[in-house]
Amino acid sequence: MASDVLVTFITVGNPDQAYRIAKAVVEENLAACVNIIPAVRSLYRWKGEICDDSECLLLVKTTSHVFPLLEARVKALHSYEVPEIIAVPVACGFRPYLDWVAENTHTQKP
Questions:
Q1: Which residues are bridge partners to 85 per DSSP?
Q2: Region 1-8: what's the mean pLDDT?
Q3: 87, β-bridge pairs
Q4: Which residues are 57's β-sheet partners?
Q5: What CATH code is assigned to 5-103?
Q6: Nearest to 83 by CA among 37, 29, 7, 17
Q7: What is the end-to-end Cα distance of the chain in Å, rounded?
Q8: DSSP class of residue 65?
Q9: How far apart, in whole angstroms, are the C-alpha atoms of residue 69 and residue 96?
Q10: Are the C-beta atoms of 32 and 80 separated by less than 8 Å?
């Protein structure tokens, strides 16, 4: 049951930015749903240094044809120089949910 649905992972530095990005992409039909996980600890290498930061994680449900617009919008709203915006395809899932994501994710308002 392959689908066009993607789950996109986006990390942000604080809850306010998480909410602003989530609200914008849902309002603009670039995502059907965004889950905000308020506290993740991220260890990563940046500019030769090991960093250890608290972040929020967004789980964004979108479709592959809308992803380029979602990516551009998130980059415009994000405070990081190189934000994490990665998507993984949904190989299978509950068909009514996948249909709902597709119906609520599009490039133009209905």
A1: 10
A2: 84
A3: 8
A4: 11, 37
A5: 3.30.70.120
A6: 17
A7: 27
A8: T
A9: 24
A10: no
**Token digits of residue 86:** 């990665």
Residue 97: CA count within 13 A, CB half-sphere? 11
Flag whether the pTM goes above 0.85: yes
The Cα–Cα gap between 53 and 57 comes to 12
Can you give the residue ranges of every domain in the chain?
5-103
Q: Give the pLDDT band of residue 6 (cuts 50, 70, 90).
A: very high
Q: Name the strand (E) or helix (H) holding 104.
A: none
Place of tokens 């990081």: 80
Query: Residue for token digits 């617009």?
Result: 69
Query: Do residues 59 and 35 lie in contact, with contact meaning Cβ atoms separated by under 8 Å?
Result: yes
Q: In degrees rounded to 5, what are phi and psi of residue 22? A: -60, -50
Q: Which residues of 78-98 are buried (b: 16+ CB within 10 A; e: fewer)?
A: bebeebbbebeebeeeeeeeb
